Amino acid sequence: MHEMSLCESVLQIIEQQAKAQQFARVKTVWLEIGALSGVEPEAMHFSFEVVMQGSLAEQARLEIIEVPGVAWCMPCGCEVLVQQLYDECPHCGSHQLQIVGGDQMRIKELEVE
Amino acid sequence: MCGVCGCGEGQIHSHDELHDHEHAHDHNHDHGHQHHHEHTAEHSHAPGLTQARMVQIEQDILAKNSRYAEENRRYFSERGMLALNLVSSPGSGKTTLLTETILRLKDELSIAVIEGDQQTARDADRIRATGVPALQINTGKGCHLDAHRVGHGLESLNLPEHSLLFIENVGNLVCPSAFDLGEAHKVVILSVTEGEDKPIKYPDMFHAADLMILNKTDLLPHLDFDSAQSIQYAKQVNPRIKVLSLSAKTGEGMENWLTWLKVELELQQIAYT
After folding, report:
1. DSSP-H helix ranges across chain B
2. How close A85 gets to chain B, by Cα (Å)?
3. B238: Cβ–Cβ under 8 A, 6 or more apart, which residues?
4. Is the overall model pTM greater than 0.90, yes or no?
5. Do A108 and B9 touch (CB under 8 A)?
6. In this complex, which of B57, B179, B204 lies closest to A13 when CB atoms are compared?
7. Residues whose CB is less than 8 angstroms from the CB of residue A22 and which lie 6 or more positions away in sequence, other chains included
C-alpha cells in the first residue's frame, strides 16, 4: 500500500500550497497517474479518503487522470502504446522498449476555496 | 512521522534547509515537463457567486522523496561510497546473502548495512554478529524505506569514505520500486523457491533493478524452477538487467557477486577522485 505514502505526500503538497496560495479548503484534487507508475487507482481512492481525514481536503473529491503507457522501440524506432512493462513491440515483437511516458504520478490541479 | 528521529514529516530540519530547491532527477523524465511554477489560474466564475478557484500545481507526488534521494546520492558520491538497495519478496534469502557477503569481504572493505523491516531488529542483529555496523529502521505501518529515513540513517552511521553500504529494504516486490533512496543500483533477489514468473507478476521492481540475483541455486535439483525462463521474463521486463546465479548457503557463484561489488565500488571511487 505505497498509495498511502503517496497520499501523504499529496497532502503535504496541498498544505504547502494552501499557505502559498491562500486557500482554506480543497474541493477537488486532480492527479495524473501513468498506467506504468505502479499505482492502483482504486487503492489511491481508498487511501486518499483515509489520509485526508481531518485535513483541509477532508471532503475533497479525487479525480484521477489516467495516462497511457508509451514506449520507444529501439529496433524499429517507433513509439508504441504499452499496457504492461513486459509488453512487446506490436510491430516487430521486440522487448527492447524504452518507456517514454505513462510512468508519472503528478498532482496536477486543485479546485479550492 | 520519521522512525529515526521522530521529526514530523512536514517539519523543517537539516535536509530541508540544505535542499529547499528542485533538482533534475536521475529517473526518466524524458517526456517530462518538469516545471515547478505555481500559478493560480482563475477560471471563469461569476463574481460574487462562489470563491472557488483553480490552482495549478504540476508537481511530482514523489518530488520530496526525490530531493532527499538526491541529497543521499550526493553524500555517497562525495565520499566515494557504493550504496545498493536490496529488494525482494520476504524469504528470498537477502539477510543470508548479506551475512555471507560480509564475512567474505569485511577484512578488505569497510561495510555497513541499513536494515528496513516493519518490526523487530532480528535482521540487524544477524548483521551485527558479523562485526559490521547495522542500523535498523522499522517502518511500522509503512511498506518501504524512503529517502528521508535513509538520510537520517546515514547521519547516525557516519561511515568512512569508500564504504560499501547495503540497504536491505522491506521484503516487498511492489512498493519499494517507486522510492528512490539515492542508491547506485537496485539489486533484486529472486530465490528459486519462488515462481519463475515473478518478474512478469511484479514487473515494476524488475524494471527498476539493474541486477537480478537468482539465489538458492543449491535447491534447483529438488524443484521444477526453470531458471532460463525466469531470466527471459526478467529481460522481457528490463532488457538491460544483468543476472547472477548463486547460492549464498553453499557459496556456489558467490565469487561473481563479490567481483561485481568490488568493480562497482571501484567505479564509484573513479568518479570520486
Report:
1. 14-18, 63-78, 94-105, 122-128, 147-157, 198-201, 203-208, 227-237, 254-272
2. 5
3. A85, B206, B207, B209
4. no
5. no
6. B57
7. none
- Amino acid letter, residue B154: L
Query: B15 with B68: CB under 8 angstroms?
Result: yes
Question: CA neighbours within 13 Å on the CB side: how many for B237?
Answer: 25
Say whether pLDDT at B15 is over 50.
Answer: no
Instruction: Tell me which amino acid residue B61 is.
Output: I
Query: Are A75 and A89 a contacting pair, CB within 8 Å?
Result: yes
Nearest to A110 among B10, B57, B235 (CB): B57
Output the pLDDT for position B240: 95
Alpha helix (H) residue ranges in chain A? 2-21, 41-52
| Strands of B82-88's sheet in order across | B134-138, B111-117, B164-168, B82-88, B185-191, B211-215, B242-245
- Indicate the residue type of A83: Q
Model pLDDT for residues B47-104, shown as the tens digit of each residue: 545 578 999 999 999 999 999 999 999 999 999 999 999 999 999 999 999 999 999 9
Whole-number pLDDT of residue B6:
43
Beta strands in A1-113 (DSSP E): 26-34, 61-67, 69-73, 79-82, 97-101, 105-112
pLDDT the model gives residue B143: 77
Whether the CB of A76 is below 8 Å from some CB of chain B: the reply is no
φ, ψ dihedrals at B236, nearest 5° = -65, -40
Q: Which whole number is the average pLDDT over B115-143?
A: 90
Average pLDDT, chain B: 85
